[in-house]
Amino acid sequence: MAAADLVKDIEALEKQAVTAVDSAVTADALQQITQDFTGKKGALTGVMKQLGSLTPEERGLVGKAANEFKAKLEALLAAKEATLAEAKFASLAETEFVDLSVTPPEFAAIQTGAVHSGHIHPITQTQKKLEEIFTSMGFSIVDGPQVEDDYHNFGALNFTDDHPARDMQDTFYTVTKHLLRTHTSSVQIRALEKMKPPLRIIAPGRVFRYEEVDASHEHTFYQMEGMIIDRKVSVGNLLHLMQTLLTEVFGKQVDVRLRPGYFPFVEPGFELDMKCLVCNGAGCPVCKHSGWVEVLPCGLVHPNVLKNAGLDPEQWQGAAFGLGLNRLVMMQHSIEDIRHFMAGKLDFLRQF
Amino acid sequence: MKLSYNWLNEFVDLSGVTPKDLADLLTMKTCEVEGFEEFMPHFNTILVAHIDELSKHPDADKLKICKVNVGSEVIQIVTGAENVEQGKKFPVARVGVTLPGKGTMQKAKLRGVESFGMLCSGSELGITTLDYAPAKIDGLMPLPDDWKTGAPLADYLGASDVILDIDNKSITHRPDLWCHFGFAREIAALLNLPLRSNPEAAEFKTVKAAGLPKIEIEKESALTYCGAEITGFKVQPSPLARQLRLLSIGQKSINNIVDISNYVLFEIGQPNHAFDRDKIGNLIRVGYSTENEKIALLDGSEHVLPKKAVLIRDGEKPVALAGVMGGAGTETTDKTTKLFLESATFPRFEIRWVVAKTGIRSDSSQRFEKAQNPGKARAAIYRFAQLLEKENPGISLSEISEVSPIDFDKTEAITVTNTFIDQKLGAIANRPASNADILRRLNFQVEEKGDTLVVTPPGYRKWYDITIAEDLVEEIGRFIGYKEIAIEPSLVACETPRAKNALRTLEHDLRSISAARLQLNEVLSYAFHSEADVKADEFFCKAGEALRMQNALNSDLDYLRISPLPGLLRAVRGNYREETNTRLFEIEKLFLPPTDAKLARDEVYFFAGAVTSEKDSAEALRDIAATIAEVLSACGLLRHDQVFENAGHGIFHPGRSGSAGTKDKKIFRFGEVHPRLLGTYGIKDRVYYFDAKLSALTDLKAEVPAYRAPFSHPAVDFDLTLVMPQRGEFATLRDVAGVLQPLVRRDLDKTVLVAFDHVATFTGGNLKENEKAVSVRATWRNPTRTLASDEIKKLQDGLIGKMQKAGFNLR
Prior knowledge:
The complex is a heterodimer of chains A (352) and B (811).
Chain A (H helix, E strand, L loop, with lengths): L2 H21 L3 H12 L4 H6 L7 H40 L11 H4 L11 H15 L3 E2 L5 E2 L1 H4 L25 E2 L5 H9 L4 E10 L11 E11 L4 H16 L5 E5 L5 E10 L16 E10 L1 H6 L8 E8 H9 L6 H4 L2 H4 L3
Parallel strand pairs in A: 1-4
Antiparallel strand pairs in A: 2-3, 4-5, 5-9, 6-7, 7-8, 8-9
Chain B lengths: L1 E3 H7 L7 H11 L3 E7 L7 E10 L7 E6 L4 E6 L9 E6 L3 E2 L3 E2 L3 E3 L2 E3 L1 E3 L2 H4 L7 H4 L17 H4 L3 E6 L13 H12 L14 E2 L6 E4 L6 E8 L8 H9 L7 H13 L4 E4 L6 E6 L4 E4 L5 E4 L4 E5 L2 E5 L3 E2 L11 E8 L2 H11 L4 H6 L8 H15 L4 E3 L2 E3 L10 E4 H8 L9 H7 L3 E5 L2 E5 L12 H12 L21 H16 L3 E2 L5 E2 L1 H6 L22 E2 L4 H9 L9 E10 L9 E10 L5 H18 L8 E4 L5 E10 L4 E8 L1 H6 L7 E6 H9 L13 E10 L4 H8 L14 E11 L8 E11 L7 H17 L3 E2 L1
Parallel strand pairs in B: 13-24, 14-17, 29-32
Antiparallel strand pairs in B: 1-12, 2-12, 3-4, 3-6, 4-5, 6-11, 7-8, 9-10, 15-23, 15-24, 15-25, 16-23, 17-20, 18-19, 20-21, 21-22, 26-28, 27-28, 30-31, 32-33, 33-37, 34-35, 35-36, 36-37, 38-40, 38-41, 39-40
Helix pairs in contact in B: 1-6, 8-11, 12-14, 15-20
């Protein structure tokens, strides 16, 4: 057999294939065409078996034709498959109609034992628990936008115009020059704009930081802001609030301590630590052998923040804190990887 | 930032204060200490050793047996080093000594000969990076002959040290702490110890300057600029002790001039720059760049600057990016014989701006970004000269030329009362000193007028740091220690009852119902969606209206979500292969076009669910409808007011798409997700889905359900099975049956249809292929009486008649 003859054979196959694909009406038929032409026992294999007697150049020629045929057939099949799928989709309304206007039964009546019971996400479970603790202490739950403006997230909170937190490396911005709130502290200002002091509020919710995701970093996480505004608010009062909170959350007496910490919207500002519950302060790997675990930043509301919210700092004082819910849940359950929260795996969620 | 314990100890006597004590003290009173680690701990234990005798190993060609004099005794060591030499000195690690990365030395036998330690190379000592040739030798490190046999290396290289690691973020508000002396001053105040010396008050004899460049400052582009000339030195490697000191805080040694410049920076936090005097002219100008002005820096990089960056110019030519980095071509080299030493202070905002704009950072910019006290600029030059003089006696320093556009010594006093401070902190049991005395210990000037204190902060604390009374509260609080403050509940004001958050209550109710009763699991999905995601479902708004991110982490996260569907489909995809019944729900926010001009978006809470099922589609869809019915009931919409209907939504299978709500308002959409859409999300199973805006559900709750007293007469049910086309809808039968009056008045003497429900649907049997049989149940009642059998018969016949008239025959 000469090379030219084999190439002609392939061209003939191509014509047959085009006809076959054209007339196919089911996915099975397309499958059959693949087998018939390019399968192990297909027509093309038959042609290729005759390559033995050819020179390398001739083989190359036939090989090229064979590859072109294969590629063409694949494209034809894919196109036809899409057409068949669309044709099937077009008729779905008639062929697979299910009447959704019927009166639904009671869910309990159709429930089967084969299905697992449901679970609430550990973050929102904790959020609810915290909300219950704080509402029992007379706090209101307030909410604020996740897409914020610079003023509420930074400016009003006493961040200078050139503060590095505003950097695109730290904060998500939208094309409308808004930003995704980097902390729930933005709700402080929103609440003060609407509510009159004295007041006690918490604002749980989602916050965002410009951060690549790894085992200990997330660009999306949950915080809970808390703030009290009253005539006199002292560091002692803040300590009491924090100790009550943590004691309620952990269900046992928790010792807390304050260390200096710097945040533009509080003065003085603190990092709050609690005595490690694993070793009770003796030092262990969980607390990095310090006996204390860092829990949250807090402080007395900066007078500039009060001023920005239209309150006279001579008349009103405040305390505020920001609790990271992901961290808290991770601490409670010794969760090793922050990515579990947003991964949506049932195997994770069913444990809570 | 790294802090050397030994360096701190030069300024404040730390005997009795361990590094751990220091870390604890700073943690509780000043800043966050991330940890501390030893630096060259072996310098104290490795000794200078003299090779008394050298002999060949009897059984190994490459080994030699040394009699090594270690001062106190002579020990035997076997070494393979080729450069070991009798009569020379080398470092020795004896048995029991620990070398970095090598473990602890043990007594060993090498081919039968005992060895009591190891002679060391520079690499084994961990000092090959030093600018010191013997340390780089591939073999033992020869020591100078005049080093005393038996002395620890520390005597010549500096003692072992402990390096504290300070969390930079915790001192951004304390410009004074960006150096060793600053920390030493802080520690001295906290521990009530005197300072041993004050490098910020350094002085040095100067000579009259002949050819100092003239200095000009445009506006306030610099707060102060000091310059002086130094001659009479030689550019050479720094002494080993200085090299090691710099190495201990992570700085590489370059030469004595650069090293001293860095040393001053890390000692008093004052950035400074040594120009080769011969490479610059006679006019130094500090001023702003023009648009696209170019500069080449000494690290070899070249930059096109934005307009208004502060530059140092030699006449017209830029020679330094002010406060950030010196320029190329004017820096000191081996051949430099005369320095022009710059020590200037630049405004914080200028440096922050230029760093943000250009991304160029340095140890200098890091300090100027926090603001430095211009009052120490002059001291840096004197300190530089002092340090250079020590290794290069006879240097000459010119008078300093200083230009300052502002009076930086002026300090505003802060007025505060003891009452205010004490009230802000709370009750303190153990007070070490009065508020005024505490502030004095921290070097504040305090004038006491009864309860009032007039407080002037020291120059190094006044720049953006201590500016208001609350700052003084913090100083006193941390000095005393917050643990001394009594924990006291706040006095609760008698305020109006707290505001209820109905939306949040509903959210949590829905979570409980979904998980406890509807076998659904809560997932949380990202707010970020791809372009394909926003185009996949335009039910809540058009894809073009989705808000786009300016700096998305990647292009799949370009938009803020406008539908719950893509997130839930991704969660289904992550589970459905392992789970026959993947049942998920989510409650979070969509970001829709704003309705309030003051807000960026209309942020709408949704409640949505996605389910895969082992049941057939009809049953699975019935489950979804039952789920929705349960939720609607829980939200206050009683079952008899719920309306389910077929309604086309683009995301759904065209024959399995519906809505549920009241007769006036659609609240949920539900159905089977279109297989084409599932294909694009890589799902090869059927997925059933529902969603609703939470606000539509809270609206239901707000309505007070209408009440009527319980009926005292029974209702009458009637089941019948009707034949209708496969494509026929139950809703049609309900419409034919007539008006439903579930809440009929109790005193109305009239028989009404109170319910018309679907019971079951059948196909097959004797039905035609395109037909189905639908069993329904009609319920009548007359509130005032029990219906008689003939009345019931009449109602039943009437209903059958209506159905037949409409074309639906009894089966």
